[in-house]
Amino acid sequence: MTKQKLDKTVAIKITDFDAFIFDLDGVVTATASVHAVAWKKMFDEFLGRYSKDSGTPFREFDIQADYLEYVDGKPRIDGIKSFLASRQIELPDGSPDDASGSETVYGLSSLKNQYFLEYLDTKGPQVFASTVDLIRRLRAGGLKTAIISSSKNCLKILETVRLTDMFDVRVDGLISEELGIEGKPAPDIFIAAARQLKVAPKRAVVVEDALSGVQAGRAGNFGLVLGVARAGDKEDLLQNGADAAVDDLAEVELIHNDSSDLDRPSALERLDEIAEQAEGKEITVFLDYDGTLTPIVDTPDKAILSDQMRRTVVRLSEHCTVGIISGRDLADVKKLVGIDSIVYAGSHGFDITGPRGLAVDNQVGAEFLPSLDKAEKALNEKLGSIRGATVERKKFAIAIHYRLVEPSRTDAVEAIVDEVAAGHNDLRKARGKKIFELQPRMDWHKGKALFSLLETLGLDRDDVLPIYLGDDVTDEDAFRALQGRGIGVVVWDEPYETAASYSLDSPDQVGQFLTALIPLCKGKDPS
């Protein structure tokens, strides 16, 4: 249940929802004001020329009235047409190739974008810290997140403020154009995001600051439409479709279950329940390696797969598709496992190989290799004096292990990692169990790797039930991606907040669970 409290705080019970969909401008970033200035400059220049040519009085573009009423939250072309219609001005559409400033709708659109990018490069986008904090809390609680924007500059802005990895899905102006999505107040862009998140609209929250945005959320029958009244227009947002409204997202209180609800039922004890979900579907199983198929050990080279576990995985692969998604390099994990009948995804899914010559090399990460090389060299030099710290270079990442470091020195290790990361804006720091990792700063994680694998294998279908087993923070992205679509099983020694549906307490139990899956897979053609 979601409530608007008297003290203006909005309380949201996170178990009521599976995902939050955020608008970009005005909700995540303070670029709405930059857009408004760019709109005003473009329109005032045009209106001045139009007034002179037509002999009509000049009336400037009003940011307070015209921006909010006609262009805020809408695709650029729709906003221009809407505003021109309000002034009884007709212009030909022209084409996307029209020169910037041409007396066509596309010409004005290009000029507005030019001014926006100029302002953006000069000032840089600002981020609402309270929004980022809310997103972090949501993801820690196992919810999926998406970003939507009518802007074609969405990805550029996210990359500039280093927030690409905060969202599972992005639907922006470029994607909307490709898909033929109608702009707000039509709900299409939100529905497209929910579809890509694989959640029902009723299980998703729309977070918007524009009137057209809350209208779209209401039209799409989303579970909750939350308005953000940056301009003090809370009542307008409520009247136009918001279920609740806040001045800032710091006013959102997330209600979690009590500590006993952190527990997840044992996958072994709920086999009947899992069998029910698998009824009539083709099971496919994906596994992490370290801590899931093997126990956690002091150094990576000691994580050896037991003969018994290898036999279990081989038997399972005879009845269903089995894949391993690991942060280790592809060659490393393939050598350690040594099974020809399964699929391997190394470097968090950048490198993929498998039976029958399957080979996919995600070359997007290749541009980060020089930066990773330099960071690796710096880490080796700076960490050399700290006993127990080891630097493990992978193709697309650098792992810094500190399990053997004296507890009093772990802060020093992290400080060095932060220092090196600060010198490489294209890399980001991630955490795991007694490990830091520098990875390419790009929109990629195990959840995306999992669905990339399913698509590559022809298994991204409604009649396929993906099951993913993992034990670490990086596996939470895969658990989130599978919510409402498959089954996540966390391997842990004690409960914590997770997006997984079931749990196991050790690699031994993982072996038992994989064995128990074999009868559920029998009779289905191995893919």
Based on the model shown, name its key terms.
about 525 residues; 4 domains; 18 helices; Rossmann fold; alpha/beta
Q: How would you describe this protein?
A:
It is a single chain. The protein has 527 residues and is an alpha/beta fold. It folds into four domains: 3-30 and 125-255, HAD superfamily/HAD-like (Rossmann fold), CATH 3.40.50; 32-121; 266-362 and 444-521, HAD superfamily/HAD-like (Rossmann fold, 3-Layer(aba) Sandwich), CATH 3.40.50; 366-440, Trehalose-6-phosphate phosphatase related protein, domain 2 (Alpha-Beta Plaits), CATH 3.30.70.1020. The protein starts with a strand and ends in a 6-residue tail after the last helix. The model is unreliable at 523-527 (pLDDT under 50). It has helices at residues 32-54, 63-71, 76-86, 105-123, 129-140, 154-160, 173-179, 188-197, 211-219, 234-239, 271-278, 307-317, 330-337, 369-383, 410-422, 446-456, 476-482, 507-521, and strands at residues 3-4, 10-13, 19-23, 144-148, 169-171, 204-208, 224-228, 244-246, 252-255, 282-287, 321-325, 343-346, 351-353, 359-361, 390-393, 398-401, 427-432, 435-440, 464-470, 487-491, 502-504. Helix 16 packs across helix 17. It contains 18 helices and 21 strands. Helices cover 38% and strands 17% of the residues. The chain is globular, with a radius of gyration of 26 Å. The chain has an eight-stranded mixed beta sheet, with helices on both faces. Strands 5-4-3-6-7-8 form a six-stranded parallel beta sheet. Strands 15-16-18-17 form a four-stranded antiparallel beta sheet, with helices on one face.
